[in-house]
Design a protein that fits this description.
With about 350 residues, this protein is an alpha+beta fold. It has helices spanning about 10-15, 30-35, 75-95, 115-130, 180-190, 200-205, 210-215, 230-240, 255-260, 265-275, 290-300, and strands at about 40, 50, 55-65, 100-110, 135-140, 145-155, 170-175, 220-225, 245, 280-285, 305-310, 315. Helix 4 links the parallel strand 4 (about 100-110) and strand 5. The protein starts with 8 loop residues before the first helix and ends in a 23-residue tail after the last strand. Bound molecules: magnesium ion.
């Protein structure tokens, strides 16, 4: 992707996306810290060679983030980098997997090195927080900014959190407030450009619940991350487990800033259908409630019980016409990211 005025793909990768690669002597190919990260051969060949921990299973997930579909293109480059990795890490959290490696495919409309520097800062900031190494990728030029990330994590065979283990009588619970990200997106569309605004921050810089999931994975029956909206994702959980759910609308955790911004009715609607929360939705035996709550609180998190799993199919207890966020059903909103 080069012309005379701009650095080529390999130079851009070297400048911005090889930050954790200490140049090992040529006979070694990897540095000691890379070897500790399970990297047998890192960036610089046709493939990375990776070594999972003995006896553990790989968890792999891919997500694409498109400008003005998954994030506003005028958000800061740092926030875009953070968010693109965060939504992928959230899928590892949903399984209780420990993050290990990721690859990045970036399509850029033009080469703006200031933008790339900010993007890499946001990306690496979160990557280091969760101890996941960038081991490959590419950069191409295209009409729209597009970020595709594939994450690899690992998990013990018998302790992955799945969608299919919920049983009637289980409690349903979430790990944090719902609807705030949707409120932040609406605030953004209404002109709020302060990325530290609590609702805007909830949208642009979600915190994947990696540590939380790893600390409770053996105590929950089922779970997933809330990306499409509580009702839509609860529907996925129920379908996979062959159960139904009864929610307590009064128990849904709403941020006061969200209620202040949208009013109670709209805030509740955002919590049910807004999406982009990236909290975990968990099903757990009532006997596990105290232990799970304690584990989450130890990490500075929370457990909010919002209902119960039922044997009757369907979701009861809330009145909502929403159906969650489905990208290709939202074309009439003008931009896919609109509320
Ligand atoms: Mg998910």
């Amino acid at each position: 992707m080069s012309d005379a005025a701009t650095p080529g793909e390999f130079e851009l990768i070297r400048r911005y996306f090889m930050q954790d690669v200490e140049h090992a002597c040529s006979s070694d190919h990897v540095s000691p810290s890379q070897a500790r990260a399970g990297i047998v051969l890192g960036q610089g060949d046709d493939c990375a060679l990776l070594s999972p921990s003995p006896g553990r299973r790989l968890a792999v997930s891919v997500d694409t983030s498109l400008a003005d579909v998954h994030f506003p293109r005028d958000a800061s480059a740092e926030a875009i980098g953070h968010r693109a990795l965060a939504v992928n890490l959230s899928d590892l959290a949903a399984m209780g997997a420990r993050p290990r490696w990721f690859v990045l495919a970036l399509t850029l409309p033009d080469v703006d090195e200031q933008w790339l520097e900010g993007f890499a800062r946001g990306l690496y900031g979160l990557a280091r927080e969760h101890d996941i190494a960038l081991v490959g990728g590419d950069i191409t030029r295209g009409q729209e900014l597009s970020i595709t990330i594939t994450v690899h994590g690992e998990v013990d065979d018998d302790s992955a959190i799945t969608r299919h283990g919920a049983r009637p009588g289980d409690l349903l619970a979430v790990t944090g407030t719902l609807g705030s990200a949707h409120g932040g997106l609406r605030a953004w569309f209404n002109g709020q450009r302060d990325e530290r605004h609590p609702l805007v921050a909830a949208y642009l810089r979600p915190a994947p619940r990696i540590k939380e999931a790893m600390s409770i994975q053996q105590r929950v029956s089922a779970g997933l991350d809330i990306s499409d909206g509580l009702l839509a994702d609860l529907g996925h959980l129920c379908a996979r487990s062959g159960v139904g759910a009864c929610l307590d609308a009064t128990a849904l955790p709403l941020d006061q800033a969200l209620v202040a911004s949208l009013g109670e009715h709209e805030a509740l609607e955002a919590a049910l259908n807004g999406g982009d929360d990236y909290e975990l939705l968990l099903a757990l035996d009532p006997e596990q409630e105290d232990a799970v709550r304690q584990a989450l609180e130890t990490l500075g998190g929370a457990l909010h019980v919002i209902g119960r799993v039922t044997s009757e199919p369907g979701i009861s207890g809330v009145a909502s016409t929403g159906r969650g966020w489905q990208h290709f059903h939202a074309a009439d909103h003008g931009t896919g990211a609109s509320p």
